[in-house]
Amino acid sequence: MRMLRIAGFCALAAWPATAPAAEYTTLAYGGITCESWASVRASKPSDAAVYEAWILGFISAYNAFVFKGPNVAAGSDFDALRGMIDDFCKEHPKDDLDSAAQALIKALLAKNPPQ
After folding, report:
1. Confidence band (pLDDT; 50, 70, 90) for 20?
2. Can you give the pTM of this predicted structure?
């Protein structure tokens, strides 16, 4: 019986703590680099607005299909959201906008956990 408990414990200890992230294809502007985000934000406001709309769409899709509540970004205005993306991109210039949007969602979840 003791061997069975030890084997069970070892099996549980080897089990991943979290499920691996599902692979998916990011569309449109999700593939641009954070370097491009920063460059466009600094010099091309009309192009930046398109990237920003992509981020809002990402958050909206998360709200619609994943989040257990009305709005993961509740209490944050768009200037704050944009600033969070800016901060992520300064630290990770080679990452893409999809990664920045995912990091944004994780930060927002810390402030607005699912209900």
Report:
1. very low
2. 0.77
Which single residue is written with the structure tokens 């995912």? 102
Domain that holds residue 72: 26-111
DSSP-derived secondary structure for 47-107? HHHHHHHHHHHHHHHHHHHT-SSS-TTTT--HHHHHHHHHHHHHH-TTSBHHHHHHHHHHH
User: How many angstroms separate the CA atoms of 35 and 46, rounded?
Assistant: 17
Residue 95 lies in a domain: yes
Instruction: State the Cα–Cα distance between residues 49 and 41, nearest whole angstrom.
Output: 8
Q: How many structural domains does the chain have?
A: 1
Q: What is the pLDDT of residues 52-70, one digit of tens each?
A: 999 999 999 999 999 998 9
| Residue 70 placed within a domain | yes
Q: Is residue 4 part of a domain?
A: no
What per-residue confidence (pLDDT) applies to 114? 87
Q: Is residue 6 part of a domain?
A: no
Q: Tell me the two tokens of residue 4.
A: 């069975």
